Here is the input.
Amino acid sequence: MILDERGEWFYFLISTYHADPAEQGVSIARMRYEDRDAPRGKVFKWREGKWESPGIGGRVTPIFPAAVDWHRADADAFWGPSVHYNTHLERYAILMNRTRDKDWTQEGVYISFNPDIADPTRWTRRRSPRRRPLVPAGHRHRCGRARDGQARRPDRPPLPARPLGARDRVSAAREDAPGR
Here is the structure.
């Protein structure tokens, strides 16, 4: 979930596993910020070019549809979207997992960008910088004072995205240790 830059709408990026393969993949819904204290009936999903499908029980048009039905052994779909706004790029960015079978075996992590989250047709083609899972540059305390859901360019050049290694896991465990 992310609040748009104008502070008017919350956007929810969701994985959809509907029985109908046409509704499987990564989808999007939204709700007005002013409705946050009483949200029932005020969330709407993106469906066929409009924000009119009810959040509960409504149908969706995935922004990243499944290539192969989730219920098949050879499933091929994106899932688990995580969104943020990158102030340096002036774009929203989604990181997504991609499965290669019905057991959710990860094929890779993909990224897509959009300058206007209110227009789901503007997401860029998904791309994977590498075939292995990646850790985004600046993943540990290197994002400056950016708020949750937002990343910005640090004062120094960003570290390149790379696979998480054993040394990183040890460092991350030390940083999370009590008393630190």
In short: Confidence is low (pLDDT under 50) at residues 132-148, 152-180. DSSP finds one helix and ten strands in the chain. The first strand starts at residue 2 and ends at 3. The beta strands are 2-3, 9-17, 24-32, 44-47, 50-54, 64-65, 77-86, 91-99, 106-114, 150-151.
